[in-house]
Amino acid sequence: MTDLTALTIAEARDQLKAKAITATELTGAYIQAIENANEALNAYVVTTPDKALQMAKASDARLASSNAGALEGIPLGIKDLFGTEGVHTQACSHILDGFKPHYESTVTANLWADGAVMLGKLNMDEFAMGSSNESSYYGPVKNPWRAKGSNTDLVPGGSSGGSAAAVAARLCAGATATDTGGSIRQPAAFTGTVGIKPTYGRCSRWGIVAFASSLDQAGPIARDVRDAAILLKSMASVDAKDTTSVDIAVPDYEAAIGKPLAGLKIGIPKEYRVEGMPEDIEKLWQQGIAWLKDAGASIVDISLPHTKYALPAYYIVAPAEASSNLARYDGVRYGLRVPGRDIVDMYEKTRATGFGDEVKRRIMIGTYVLSAGYYDAYYLQAQKVRTLIKKDFEDVFNAGVDAILTPATPSAAFGVADQDMAADPVKMYLNDIFTVTVNMAGLPGIAVPAGLDARGLPLGLQLIGRPFDEETLFQTAYVIEQAAGKFNAPKWW
Amino acid sequence: MSVDISTVKRVAHLARIAVSEDDATRMTSQLNAILGFVEQLNEVNVEGVEPMTSVTPMAMKKREDVVNDGSKAADIVANAPIHEENFFVVPKVVE
């Protein structure tokens, strides 16, 4: 029998419908693949094989009665940030020890309603704070990719590092992820997978552990552009339980794939050419421009003048929102409690033990910038800069640009326990330099693999679209994918 | 702007995170590195610019003022470290 885990979601969907394979066989193949690989990669923090097989059996029954949903029988991995009823949901933090919600997040409920099968919960940076998956309480994830001729372990990026690694290593057909400053797109770029952060308000945030509520968005990581389109269609919805969920019908994203690019205007922002960017990435960007031009798009140079201020503004807005969102972890209502001599001592000890260093750092920054006397200088200033960042994009879109092409990351995947990054938190933050603008402006952005660097590591390009125009991103990203081909990590695990 | 160790300890207390002397020293330099990085925002001219409140121009959704959820006390306390008869149990706060 051929390896069922090699099938894309689109291929598996067709074979399931044609009854060439069963959901139970497909799910069994993934359970086996996870068993063989997870010790080496650490992509899953919890697996749910019994639940998966049960769901697969129900899918087979629905497939037999021609009552199948859009994702019927497709085995998925779920980032540990999504609330899943009765199943480990800890945002990979010690402070949520033992937490099993009595509810299901809207996004995962949408997936199960469409027939998808849950394989387990995926590793991530603690509370989605990080760019290397090293801040997880459950230890780092290893990137399935290694440099040519090297056996040095690389990070898969973060915070959705488990999602990206599991997709790249074929430990699930696709995965859910979330993106607050680049946490879908950066790990996708580091692992040769496709990741899309949709427009703010497209996927419901209900039931997802909150990090920075004005920036958080869920989206898929998948093996190719078509699979990402299929997954987003199911994940997205209009939800009364999230007041920022926008009341616009979800289009059929897959229908945008294969449409010609003639008439599309693609902007190339000069501010994304940063100092010290590796030559490989500059070359890749030029190659991407050439591919889109060949496909009939017109290319225009544009300027987004406030780009360099997006990352510093983010490191005020996101920690400020995090400090207030994470105030709920107090040792009273869920998770870890460390006893103290009185209630305040109990709070302080619980939070000191339960949160990791990066999370503490961000809570501290957030608490400081919101504290009396500093609010105007930091938070208000950052929110004004955010208005200017958004206006930069609006001006460009008003001038007729349909999408913007940039590199996805300023480098390829780096090593686990990189000394420079460990010594200087700001160095780690710079990973998100190309992605964070998109969150600040609430726009959709997709990362698509476009080539390998000289060491044989994947690199991605990013396309940024108008609000709620994910279709143009799928349409354009597909052209890049067709030109670049797909990239698979040689198996070593 | 930068912070000294006593400010770091005060902020840690506001954030309800216990810090040792060593933690506070380490955090002081890390927080100053981050504050130094965000300092560049001061060079942006924001005169007349409204602070962002929502990335999507939309009116806040309001739901009807009716009870549509509840009666699930047992679900709510189910994950509490200590609970008794649907109450969260905490150390004594009133003498």
From TrEMBL, chain A:
<dbReference type="GO" id="GO:0050567">
    <property type="term" value="F:glutaminyl-tRNA synthase (glutamine-hydrolyzing) activity"/>
</dbReference>
<dbReference type="GO" id="GO:0006412">
    <property type="term" value="P:translation"/>
</dbReference>
<feature type="active site" description="Charge relay system">
    <location>
        <position position="79"/>
    </location>
</feature>
<protein>
    <recommendedName>
        <fullName>Glutamyl-tRNA(Gln) amidotransferase subunit A</fullName>
        <ecNumber>6.3.5.7</ecNumber>
    </recommendedName>
</protein>
<comment type="similarity">
    <text>Belongs to the amidase family. GatA subfamily.</text>
</comment>
<comment type="function">
    <text>Allows the formation of correctly charged Gln-tRNA(Gln) through the transamidation of misacylated Glu-tRNA(Gln) in organisms which lack glutaminyl-tRNA synthetase. The reaction takes place in the presence of glutamine and ATP through an activated gamma-phospho-Glu-tRNA(Gln).</text>
</comment>
<dbReference type="Pfam" id="PF01425">
    <property type="entry name" value="Amidase"/>
</dbReference>
<keyword id="KW-0067">ATP-binding</keyword>
<dbReference type="GO" id="GO:0030956">
    <property type="term" value="C:glutamyl-tRNA(Gln) amidotransferase complex"/>
</dbReference>
<comment type="subunit">
    <text>Heterotrimer of A, B and C subunits.</text>
</comment>
<comment type="function">
    <text>Hydrolyzes indole-3-acetamide (IAM) into indole-3-acetic acid (IAA).</text>
</comment>
<dbReference type="InterPro" id="IPR036928">
    <property type="entry name" value="AS_sf"/>
</dbReference>
<dbReference type="InterPro" id="IPR023631">
    <property type="entry name" value="Amidase_dom"/>
</dbReference>
<dbReference type="InterPro" id="IPR000120">
    <property type="entry name" value="Amidase"/>
</dbReference>
<feature type="domain" description="Amidase">
    <location>
        <begin position="25"/>
        <end position="473"/>
    </location>
</feature>
<keyword id="KW-0436">Ligase</keyword>
<dbReference type="GO" id="GO:0016740">
    <property type="term" value="F:transferase activity"/>
</dbReference>
<feature type="active site" description="Charge relay system">
    <location>
        <position position="159"/>
    </location>
</feature>
<feature type="active site" description="Acyl-ester intermediate">
    <location>
        <position position="183"/>
    </location>
</feature>
<dbReference type="GO" id="GO:0005524">
    <property type="term" value="F:ATP binding"/>
</dbReference>
<dbReference type="InterPro" id="IPR004412">
    <property type="entry name" value="GatA"/>
</dbReference>
<keyword id="KW-0808">Transferase</keyword>
Automatic annotation (TrEMBL), chain B:
<dbReference type="Pfam" id="PF02686">
    <property type="entry name" value="GatC"/>
</dbReference>
<keyword id="KW-0648">Protein biosynthesis</keyword>
<dbReference type="GO" id="GO:0006412">
    <property type="term" value="P:translation"/>
</dbReference>
<comment type="subunit">
    <text>Heterotrimer of A, B and C subunits.</text>
</comment>
<dbReference type="InterPro" id="IPR036113">
    <property type="entry name" value="Asp/Glu-ADT_sf_sub_c"/>
</dbReference>
<dbReference type="GO" id="GO:0070681">
    <property type="term" value="P:glutaminyl-tRNAGln biosynthesis via transamidation"/>
</dbReference>
<keyword id="KW-0436">Ligase</keyword>
<keyword id="KW-0067">ATP-binding</keyword>
<dbReference type="GO" id="GO:0006450">
    <property type="term" value="P:regulation of translational fidelity"/>
</dbReference>
<dbReference type="InterPro" id="IPR003837">
    <property type="entry name" value="GatC"/>
</dbReference>
<dbReference type="GO" id="GO:0050566">
    <property type="term" value="F:asparaginyl-tRNA synthase (glutamine-hydrolyzing) activity"/>
</dbReference>
<dbReference type="GO" id="GO:0016740">
    <property type="term" value="F:transferase activity"/>
</dbReference>
<dbReference type="GO" id="GO:0050567">
    <property type="term" value="F:glutaminyl-tRNA synthase (glutamine-hydrolyzing) activity"/>
</dbReference>
<comment type="function">
    <text>Allows the formation of correctly charged Asn-tRNA(Asn) or Gln-tRNA(Gln) through the transamidation of misacylated Asp-tRNA(Asn) or Glu-tRNA(Gln) in organisms which lack either or both of asparaginyl-tRNA or glutaminyl-tRNA synthetases. The reaction takes place in the presence of glutamine and ATP through an activated phospho-Asp-tRNA(Asn) or phospho-Glu-tRNA(Gln).</text>
</comment>
<dbReference type="GO" id="GO:0005524">
    <property type="term" value="F:ATP binding"/>
</dbReference>
<protein>
    <recommendedName>
        <fullName>Aspartyl/glutamyl-tRNA(Asn/Gln) amidotransferase subunit C</fullName>
        <ecNumber>6.3.5.-</ecNumber>
    </recommendedName>
</protein>
<keyword id="KW-0808">Transferase</keyword>
<comment type="similarity">
    <text>Belongs to the GatC family.</text>
</comment>
<keyword id="KW-0547">Nucleotide-binding</keyword>
